[in-house]
Amino acid sequence: MRPVAGVSLQRKLLLWLLLPQLVLWLSGGFLAWRIALQNGEKGIDQTLTQSVRALARQIKPIGDGLLVDFPKAAQDILEQDPTDRITYMVSSPPGRFLLGNAQLPPPPVLDIRLGEPLLYHARLDERAVRVALLEVDYGSEPARQRLRVQVAQSLTVRERIAQELLEQMVLPMGLMGLALSALVYAGVLRGLQPLKRLEAQIERAGQRRPVEGDPLPPIELTSAPQEVHSLASTINRLLDAVARGQRKEKRFLNDAAHQLRTPLAGLIAQTELALQESHEPQVRERLQKVLAGAQRSAHLVHQLLQLARSESHVPMEALDLPTLARDVAREWARRAVAHGMDLGYEGEETALVCGNALLLREALNNLIDNALHYAGQGATVTVRVERDTESPRTVLLLVEDDGPGVAPPHLAEMFGRFWRGSDQPGGCGLGLSIVEEVALRHEGRTVAEPVRPHGLRVGLRLPLMPQA
User: Fold this and answer.
1) Which of 75, 126, 149, 435 has the least C-beta neighbours within 10 A?
2) The HAMP domain covers which part of the protein (predicted)?
């Protein structure tokens, strides 16, 4: 199961920095709206309080009656805005309409102090209004009476003031939010630059193949934060441990292969001598089995040595790939004829690559050996060097046969270590793994594709030299 990539650190930082900023910006806008409403309401309350006191002063008691001195000019001022006019009502006793331009709702409380204005919210004609109420008494004892004066104004003015104030604040707040977001984004990018440099150094270290025996290059970050220094130090220790493990593995592989090669060569020689001197069928059959096992072991040791050599440092030089391919094909021609196969070369006359002749020769030997081993008697095996149709700066070194081939699902597994395409005796499953190592060492890659109607084409895709 492949691991699922998580959200990047940059996105997480931006999310946790910009999301609270957005929440605070929205909260600030809501608070500004509420403050604007409160300030607008305070202004309305002051206006209504002055209006209700002024109106109450215009009502003068005369004996046991009332004289309302409310000039026409004052009434016009109160009613000059049809959409948001001030509504008033005078009642005595409280609640009994005497005069006014509307029937205003009563207050929500019953305990009302004389001479002190009371402000409350109400609804009039399906509209929200703010009402100021003032009660005074008039007349003499025992016929003293109470007079209620009410003045109301719609809250439309308050909402309009709050909306205008909010509109005036939105643009500056938005510009400040964008500027802050840009600063946060730039700060996150700058803060993550040490991690980017660390990533680049690790990538370069992974692409570079160090000389055998040399440690992997350490990661250096001189101007990074302390946390990145700790991470780099930990990675350096890990790289050093990996390098030590690789050196031990290669040293063991070389030592083991060298130690096994000499006794195996002696075993093969002694078995061949015993076969020449023995004439008993049963003994010869057993000696043939011993000889086949020793030869397989010797071949395995040889492949292990080549694998260790391909993973170590080797010098590169300019060489003509078609010339090398023709030479190797000629060397295998006698064996191909002995197996009843046709082996030949087709392709380019010249193609310069930067590589190691020993490794490329060993890779081609493995490809031809596999083709002769698995294609079957009577097959045709062709060594090719041709320009790559996918990229004009690469060249293909291929071995093609018209044998049974490999099933398409197994093409991707062919270059794994100890993978074998059939149960035929011989081989150890390391040949194509060596081919892949050689391709990687030459900054190329392997190729495996079926041939129609049957057969297999296997090889390397290598970069041409720039002057080629």
Assistant:
1) 126
2) 189-247
Whether the CB-CB separation of 448 and 406 falls below 8 Å is answered with yes
Give a yes or no: residue 120 inside a domain.
Answer: yes
Q: What are the two backbone dihedrals, phi and then psi, of residue 320, each rounded to the nearest 5 degrees? A: -90, 110
- In sequence order, the β-bridge partners of residue 127 are 124
Please state the domain count of the chain: 3
370: containing domain: 315-463
DSSP SS3 for 152: strand
- 15 with 121, same domain: the answer is yes
Strand partners, 448: 458
pLDDT tens column, 109-164: 888 888 899 999 898 888 888 899 998 887 667 767 888 899 988 887 777 777 77
Tokens 């000889």 correspond to: 291
Question: What is this structure's pTM?
Answer: 0.44
Question: Is the domain of 289 the same as that of 393?
Answer: no
Ranges assigned E (strand) in 261-324:
317-320
User: Does 181 have pLDDT greater than 80?
Assistant: yes
Residue that terminates a domain, selected from 313, 335, 368: 313
Q: What are the structure tokens assigned to 460, written together?
A: 């390397």
**Contact criterion met (CB below 8 Å) for 29 and 166:** yes
What Å distances lie between residue 18 and 9, 82, 229, CA to CA?
14, 47, 27
Bridge partners, 456 (sequence order): 401, 450
**Of 78-92, 244-258, 334-348, which one has max mean pLDDT?**
334-348
